[in-house]
């Protein structure tokens, strides 16, 4: 993640006059994008390229799977070190802050060295890694849920209010079209996804008909609940800015998680192999894109709004630079106080690195099988545990969003922001 980040930071320094806190977060985010791209290429091409030299215990699919694990683990180790090293950093003048904001050539070499070194590690030592990636990846899904709800209640709401205000002030139908069109598109994609699930993934054996049908039906009911609640008069009275645009975003994310859960059903419920491949490709692409968006939003929301998620547990919240408004001539806006918690920021990247392993490997697991000649062999297969964890996450995101809508109605004497 640090590798390309240093180059990106230098380039943006020369082109765009951004603050130090923003440049550093941008560099880490760009680096993570490129590291994920590397993992994707290794998964799909490395195993095939070295297939003749692979041992019987780990074929091309297994080796490509473990290549992603190695890139993911390298990111985890590097960000875990930076997380521990930056605990308690309050200003950029702290010598440890330079580990976070500087030493980019050194971090490039360290990350490259760790990644290369992990390829010399015995494959058997990496077999249990998918379990850790599954657990911590689901924690990142929970973080994504919080980021999504914060995004829906702040950024999207602000955009909807701005379009509505401009339409009322100018009478220009363009703004109304943007608002209505965006909302309609979100719901069309969500409903289209549900139709695909019902049509292609509920016609297999009894397990498919029961499990996948239940997932799709629960998702449909939750989409309806989110939609109706967002326009209920009691909710609108307490939260006038709640609306269908925000509910549409939550609904589409809910359907995505449901589709991802259905795709990892080990019973093979797809109507055709082509449908299964298309859903796998779609959920992988959307999962990677959502990871980048979540990291980007969590990175820049702190610098712009002063209340971003990456500032949790930061001792600098009350510092003069906490809102990212200060800064000297050199662009250092954290000399008097960090704009966000460095340690928590790297914790987010640790979880994101685990989640990247899950998404690029399509939430598959490694299972030991016995080949025809009696040789133990590691096979890549779908997992029932990941299926249920993603399904539960889809229900959780709907329940969390519903709570943010009904809480002001149930507790009118409390302030919710």
Automatic annotation (TrEMBL):
Transmembrane segments: 26-45, 65-89, 101-121, 127-156, 177-201, 213-235, 242-259, 279-300, 392-411
Location within or outside the cell: Membrane
Keyword Signal applies: no
GO cellular component: membrane
Alphabetically ordered keywords of this record: Membrane, Transmembrane, Transmembrane helix
Matches recorded under InterPro entries: TDE1/TMS
Keyword Membrane recorded: yes
Family of this protein: Belongs to the TDE1 family.
Protein name: Serine incorporator/TMS membrane protein
């Amino acid at each position: 993640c640090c590798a390309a980040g240093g180059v990106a930071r230098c380039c943006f320094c020369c082109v765009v006059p951004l603050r130090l806190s923003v440049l550093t977060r941008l560099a880490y985010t760009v680096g993570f994008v490129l590291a994920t791209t590397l993992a994707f290429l290794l998964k799909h091409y490395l195993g095939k390229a070295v297939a003749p030299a692979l041992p019987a215990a780990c074929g091309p699919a297994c080796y490509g799977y473990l290549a992603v694990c190695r890139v993911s683990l390298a990111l985890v180790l590097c960000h875990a070190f930076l997380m521990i090293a930056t605990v308690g950093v309050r200003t950029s003048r702290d010598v440890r802050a330079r580990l976070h904001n500087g030493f980019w050539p050194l971090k490039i070499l360290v990350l490259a060295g760790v990644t290369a070194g992990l390829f010399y590690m015995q494959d058997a030592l990496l077999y249990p890694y998918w379990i850790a990636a599954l657990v911590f990846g689901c924690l990142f899904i929970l973080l994504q849920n919080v980021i999504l709800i914060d995004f829906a209640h702040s950024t999207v709401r602000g955009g909807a209010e701005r379009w509505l205000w401009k339409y009322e002030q100018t009478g220009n139908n363009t703004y109304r079209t943007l608002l209505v069109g965006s909302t309609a598109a979100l719901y069309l994609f969500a409903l289209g996804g549900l139709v695909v699930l019902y049509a292609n993934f509920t016609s297999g054996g009894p397990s498919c008909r029961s499990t996948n049908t239940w997932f799709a039906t629960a998702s449909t009911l939750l989409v309806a609940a989110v939609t109706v609640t967002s326009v209920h008069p009691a909710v609108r009275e307490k939260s006038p800015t709640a609306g269908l645009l925000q509910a549409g975003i939550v609904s589409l994310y809910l359907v995505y998680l449901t589709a991802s859960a259905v795709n990892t059903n080990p019973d093979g419920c797809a109507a055709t192999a082509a449908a299964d491949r298309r859903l796998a490709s779609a959920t992988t692409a959307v999962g990677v894109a959502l990871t980048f968006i979540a990291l980007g939003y969590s990175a820049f929301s702190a610098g712009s709004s002063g209340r971003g998620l990456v500032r949790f547990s930061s001792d600098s919240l009350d510092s003069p630079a906490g809102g990212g408004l200060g800064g000297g001539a050199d662009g250092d806006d954290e000399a008097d106080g960090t704009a966000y918690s460095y340690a928590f920021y790297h914790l987010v990247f640790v979880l994101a690195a685990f989640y990247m392993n899950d998404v690029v490997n399509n939430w598959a697991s490694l299972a030991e099988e016995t080949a025809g000649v009696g040789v133990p062999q590691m096979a890549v297969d779908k997992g029932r545990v990941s299926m249920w964890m993603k399904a539960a996450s889809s229900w959780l995101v709907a329940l969390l969003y519903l709570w943010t809508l009904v809480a002001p109605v149930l507790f009118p004497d409390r302030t919710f922001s």
